[in-house]
Amino acid sequence: MTNEQQVPLQTISANVAETSSSSTFKTIYQRLHAHSGIWYMLTSNILFACCTFSLKLIPADMFDIMIVRFAVQTIVFGIYAICYKHYSVFDTHGQPIASALNVLMSSGTNLTYLAAFYFLPLSDLNTIKYTYIVWAAILAVIFLKERFRFVNGISLILTAAGLLLATKPQFFIKTFSDMFIQTPKNISLTAIATTTVLNQVTTTSSYYYLGVILAFISSLTKAIQMIARKQLVNTKQPYSVMNFQFTAFALIIALSYSLIRRIWQPVGYPWKWMFSVGVIIGAIQLITNTFLAKALKRENVQLLSIIGTFDILYACLLQYIFLKLTKSGMFYVGASLIVISAIILSIDNHLRSKKLKQQQQEKNPESNA
């Protein structure tokens, strides 16, 4: 009778557990890697929101810090485009109007966004900013001769309602309620109360509504920038060249504003804050640009546009953590309507592009073989 060597049950169970756990981690890693574009986009948005919010906490003018930030980005994009890729940074690829619009609108988007941030909380600013998806669809109908569809109308209505609710509608609510509620017996009392309330709202909200106007301009310029960039991408204009042109022009504008402001208000430059914070923000912005480019290569633009609306949530969280600032329920309803309009348009664009690809494949079956 031969003595067989037996393997202890503890060893077998340990090996099985180790194999199953390693396969589980491998599966999780594969799934995360398959959707790495989403994680790049989320990380990019979080970094951008934190950088923007930090400007409120720094005792220095935002535009002074932007001088160093744009200088850092211009140098890096210039070295990459000119020295590494050997691109011509002044080549418009036969699209001079689109190139000029891209430079002007990119700079306008960033600078009006910062100007609006003087007067608005970041949550309100980001809510208004993401209406650019709707405005881009409307501008595509006007300039790119796309057909205005029912989806565009629904998104436009939702955006308008969302803007009205999210941007402190006390003035409108009070006006309309007084129009329908007042009775002949208390007209004089109501008129006095209405005048008092409206005066208070006007005085306390004048700077707020100035910020709303600037944020709205920023969203419109962002929409025009998207149309211009779409034209340039179709002509194979490199992103590094477009970014170099934008940051160089924005640097000139920020410097000009800084010098003109000091003619009227002669104050010194906060060199310490400018170089320390400006370099850090400039470096982080380069990282966010890299992550965004990686995300665009891995996921479709429509999905990334939906994920981008999470900026509103990040802003609300940052405001609550550092400033203990909370928003009303009316704001969240309005922000939700704007997000829903962006989701509707993004899904519709995805379905249309998918249908167009299928039609092209049916027309050219030999190229797909």
Main sheet specs: none
DSSP helical segment count: 15
**Class by SSE composition:** mainly alpha
Strand segment tally: 0
Mean pLDDT: 81
Nearest-angstrom radius of gyration? 26 Å
* Beta-strand content bin: under 5%
**What is the helical fraction, as a range of percent?**
over 70%
The unreliable regions are 182-204
Quaternary assembly: single chain
Distance between the termini: 65 Å
The total number of structural domains is 1
**Element order: H for helix, E for strand:** HHHHHHHHHHHHHHH
Shape: globular
Please tell me about this protein's structure:
The structure is a single chain. With 369 residues, this protein is mostly helical. It has one domain. Helix content is 82%, strand content 0%. α6 (132-143) runs antiparallel to α7 and α7 (150-166) packs antiparallel against α14. Residues 182-204 have low confidence and may be disordered.
Short description:
This protein is mostly helical and 369 residues long. It has 15 helices and no strands. The protein has one domain.
Give the arrangement of secondary structure elements.
Blueprint: H1 9-34, H2 36-57, H3 62-84, H4 96-117, H5 122-129, H6 132-143, H7 150-166, H8 170-181, H9 187-234, H10 239-264, H11 271-298, H12 301-308, H13 311-323, H14 329-363, H15 365-368
